[in-house]
Amino acid sequence: MQLNFEKMKKRVLVATGGGDCPGLNAVLRAFVKRAHQEREWEVLGSIQSFNGLMEEPTNIRVLDPKVVSGIHVRGGTIIGTTNKGGPFAWPVKKADGTWEAVDRSDEMIRKCQLLGIDAVVNIGGDGSQRISQKLFEKGLPVIGVPKTIDNDLAATDYTFGFQTAVQTATDALDKLVTTAESHNRILIMEVMGRDAGWIALSCAIAGGAEVCLIPEIPYSIDSIIRCMDDRFQRGKRFAVIVVSEGAKPLDGAVSGYAGTEVGYENFRLAGAAARLSSELKAAGIDLDIRETVLGHVQRGGSPVAYDRILASQFGVKAFEMVKNGEFGYMVAYRQPDIISVPLTEAVGHMKFVQNTDNLVQTARGINICMGDFFEV
Predict the structure, then answer these.
(1) Are the beta carbons of 84 and 106 closer than 8 angstroms?
(2) Can you give the pLDDT at residue 2?
(3) Are residue 274 and residue 228 in the same domain, yes or no?
C-alpha cells in the first residue's frame, strides 16, 4: 500500500482480532461512515489484526465509504482476523527450527508513529482488550470495541455476535428435536462456551431442551439420569441436551487437548458431548444417543438485526471516543446507553452465569435440568 507521508488528514488504524464474529463488518462500516462525516480523518484497516501493521511490507488498506458499502449484512470481517501471536508474543522461528515468542510492541508503536497514526481502535474480545490495555500503558492511543459471541465481558451488558450465535444454535436445536422424536433418540448438541454458558443456556430455553450443561455448574450424571427417567415415565421416548464445550462433571475437568499450533498454545476444548454420551451409555440409558458439535458454524453467517444495530452503535461510539481523545477506554452497552468504560474495568473480570441469574431461574422454572440436584 502506498501512503502519503506528508499527510493532510488525521489517521486512525482499525484492527479486528480474535475469533471472527457476526457484526464485525457492521462495526467497520459504522465507524468509517461516521469518520467520513468529519472529513479530516482517514481510516486505515490492518489486515489480520495487528499482523498487517507489523509485516514487511506493511499490509494495511484504506477504508472509505465505498469500501464498506453494504458490508453490514456480511459475516466475518473484510480486514481479516487472527487469534494467534500478537505484538507482545510474536512467533519467530529460530535457526534450530523451534519457535519462540518475541515482544515486538515497541516496534509496533514506532511503526504507528512513522505512519502518522493518531489513534488505534482494537475490536476484539478479552484477549484483544488485554493487548489494548498493555499498548495503552506503553503510550499508544488505543480505544477498544468489545467483540465475543460468548457474551462474557463483564463491562458490557451485551456484545454483538452473541444473539446471532444463539439464533444459529436455536435453529440447529429445533431441527434436532424433530429427528430425536422421529427416531426415539437422545441428541446431544455441543455449543461454544469455554468459561461461560450464556449461549447454551439461552438456546436451551429458546429451543426447549430437557438438559443444559454449562461450565459454571459442574454436573452429576446421576442428576441427568434422574431427569431422563422422569421424562421416560411420562411417555416421552426422546430428549435433546445442550452442553457447553467447557462443561465438566463434578470433580472432573473439561474435555480437550493442548494446542500445538504456533502462536496458539491455548488448551483446545473438544469432546464434551462425546464424553457425556459415553457417560449416559455407561449408566444404562437404553435409547440411541447421538452427538452434534456446532463448532464454528456459530461464528459465521449474516448477523441478525439486533447484532447489526448494536455493532453499528459501537462503531459510531468508537469514533466519537477517538474524536474526543478517550484513549484507554472501551465502548460498552449499559442498557439503555452506549458508554465508555476504562479498559482496566473491561478486562478486570469475566461475566459468568450465576445460579441466581434470572435465566437460570427461568430454565429451572420450565424444568430444564442443569445437571445438579437443585430443587425448584
Answers:
(1) no
(2) 52
(3) yes
Whether residue 118 is contained in a domain is answered as: yes
Q: Are residues 233 and 320 in the same domain?
A: no
Instruction: Indicate the number of domains in the chain.
Output: 2
Signed CA dihedral, 32, 33, 34, 35: sign only: positive
Q: Which H, E and C letters describe the chain, residue by residue?
A: CCCCCCCCCEEEEEEECCCCCCCHHHHHHHHHHHHHCCCCEEEEEECCCCHHHHCCCCCEEEECHHHHCCHHHCCCCCCCCCCCCCCCCEEEECCCCCEEEECCHHHHHHHHHHCCEEEEEEEECHHHHHHHHHHHHCCCCEEEEECCCCCCECCCCCCCCHHHHHHHHHHHHHHHHHHHHHHCEEEEEEECCCCCCHHHHHHHHHHCCCEEECCCCCECHHHHHHHHHHHHHCCCCCEEEEEECCCCECCCCCCEEECCECCECCEEECCHHHHHHHHHHHCCCCCEEEEEECHHHHHCCCCCHHHHHHHHHHHHHHHHHHHHCCCCEEEEEECCEEEEEEHHHHCCCECCCCCCCHHHHHHHHCCCECCCCCCC
Beta-bridge partners for 11: 42, 117
Catalytic residues: 150
pTM, two decimal places: 0.91
pLDDT (tens digit, 9 = 90+) per residue, 26-51? 999 999 999 999 989 999 999 999 99
pLDDT at 162: 95
Give the pLDDT score at 4: 52
pLDDT tens readout for residues 297-313:
999 999 999 999 999 99
Query: Domain containing 67 — which CATH number?
Result: 3.40.50.450
Are both 44 and 95 inside the same structural domain?
yes
Shared-domain flag, residues 188 and 146: no
> Residue 67: pLDDT band by 50, 70, 90 thresholds?
very high
Confidence band for 254, pLDDT divided at 50, 70 and 90? confident
CATH number of the domain within which 173 lies: 3.40.50.460
Domain of residue 31, residue span? 10-160+303-335
Where does residue 97 rank: exposed (0-12), middle (13-18), buried (19+ CB within 10 A)? exposed
| 153 plus 181 within the same structural domain | no
Q: Give me the amino acid identity at 2.
A: Q
